[in-house]
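From the methods appendix. Each design record in this collection lists the tokenized structure first, followed by the designed amino acid sequence. Records were kept in a plain field format so they could be parsed without special tools. The example shown here is representative of the layout used throughout.

RECORD:
FOLD TOKENS (431 positions):
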């Protein structure tokens, strides 16, 4: 046995095999020096699944499966030997020098602190939030290993560690089911029906967002405290297909349910808007909002599509003390029409409304992607946003135009103000 094998043996023995099996939803009872339970790999009513912690081994007399903690990880997580050894190493505390064959993690890889099986395997009742967070964390953990998702984000200029971590971006790669206890087990059946009810699974049992970049829509439980899990609720999931060769008619954009709940980036946006003199940027798509955020414009949120201003977003726009909204919808007919309608509604609420102008056919993301310096291109576009009151009400005076005050040229955008109110919107910009 060489040093490497000895090291692996030590990890296998130090691993909490019992804990891992229990975390997968298997109920065990003591039988002499061993533990017995119903096998998670085949259907049975009399326990033939045995764990021997002293030896670090498990075995099923019914289906013949068995082995060490490494075999357990390979089977339950559907991964290869190398990955299983790396996963095991993560699970064994303070193991000394790193294992030579451990795969190097990509520089931007995302930490996944818990063994995924534990997320769904807990025997206690899980709330919808527990389960949704488990889904978000699972997808998040799969992102860095997915070439197709990474390539997509790179093409969009969004492969950015801070962005990925802040918004818990993920990738649905069909592996979710492998983290859930077997459906023959009570726990497995419970979790599956819960996931179906929440829309994560379809009636058919397939993952709804399969093949998609997944962006959770997170609600803030505590205003201002947005950074950690537990204070944010998962209100929904948005999926953007990134795989190619899809059947014609397959939608590129998916949401978990039809509801348009929550305000994307709400707490950060509000704080940043306050620092930016009350200005909020409103996009029509999540990827556009992520683009602005990534390039330093954090006072940004998004509708869920060009007709997607739901009740939560409307309340946010009109009741949180904002002074002006820059509508950054696509530069096309649908974007223009929706922007005009929204502008008149917002103006009636007393808000100043501006329209971000991009060359015909562009959206925020495509404009940033084609620019050599996206930050500067976006800043210039924002500085050139036009006041909508004039265009909207040209020629037909009504109460809105009568009361509206045409601001001085260039006075609207924080990035053009000289009084220092523009710290946040210009965050990270070269001075
Ligand atoms: Zn078995």
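DESIGN:
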């Amino acid at each position: 046995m060489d040093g490497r094998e000895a090291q692996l043996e030590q990890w296998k023995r130090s691993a909490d095999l019992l804990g891992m099996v229990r975390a997968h939803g298997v109920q065990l009872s003591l039988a002499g020096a061993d533990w017995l339970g119903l096998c998670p790999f085949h259907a049975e009513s009399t326990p033939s699944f045995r764990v021997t912690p002293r030896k670090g081994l498990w075995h099923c007399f019914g289906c013949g499966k068995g082995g060490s903690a490494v075999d357990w990880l390979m089977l339950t997580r559907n991964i290869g030997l190398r990955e299983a050894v790396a996963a095991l190493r993560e699970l064994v505390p303070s193991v000394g020098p790193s294992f030579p064959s451990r795969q190097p993690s990509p520089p931007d890889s995302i930490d996944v602190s818990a063994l995924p099986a534990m997320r769904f395997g807990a025997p206690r009742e899980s709330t919808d939030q527990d389960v949704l967070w488990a889904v978000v964390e699972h997808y998040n953990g799969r992102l860095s290993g997915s070439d197709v998702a990474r390539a997509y984000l790179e093409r969009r200029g969004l492969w950015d560690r801070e962005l990925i971590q802040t918004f818990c971006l993920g990738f649905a790669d069909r592996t979710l089911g492998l983290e859930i206890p077997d459906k023959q087990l009570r726990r497995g059946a419970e979790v599956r029906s819960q996931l179906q009810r929440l829309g994560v699974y379809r009636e058919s049992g397939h993952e709804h967002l399969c093949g998609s970049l997944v962006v959770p829509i997170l609600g803030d439980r505590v205003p201002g405290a947005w950074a950690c899990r537990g204070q944010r609720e998962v209100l929904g999931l948005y999926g953007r297909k990134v795989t190619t060769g899809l059947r014609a008619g397959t939608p590129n954009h998916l949401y978990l349910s039809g509801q348009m709940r929550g305000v994307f980036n709400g707490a950060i946006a509000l704080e940043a808007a306050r620092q930016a003199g009350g200005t909020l940027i409103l996009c029509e798509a999540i990827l556009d909002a992520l683009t602005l955020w990534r390039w330093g414009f954090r006072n940004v949120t998004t509708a869920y599509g060009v007709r997607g201003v739901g009740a939560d977003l409307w309340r946010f726009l009109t009741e949180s003390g904002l002074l002006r909204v820059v509508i950054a919808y696509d530069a096309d007919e649908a974007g223009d029409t929706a922007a005009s309608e929204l502008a008149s509604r917002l103006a009636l609420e007393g808000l100043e409304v501006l329209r971000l102008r991009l060359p015909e056919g562009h959206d925020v993301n495509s404009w940033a992607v084609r620019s050599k310096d996206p930050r500067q291109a976006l800043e210039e576009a924002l500085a050139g946003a036009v006041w909508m009151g004039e265009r909207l009400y040209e020629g037909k005076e009504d109460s809105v135009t009568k009361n509206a005050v045409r601001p001085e040229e260039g006075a609207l955008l924080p990035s053009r103000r000289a009084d220092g109110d523009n710290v946040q919107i210009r965050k990270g910009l070269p001075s």
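APPENDIX NOTE: Residues 39, 41-42, 49, 60, 62-63, 65 surround zinc ion (CB under 6 Å).
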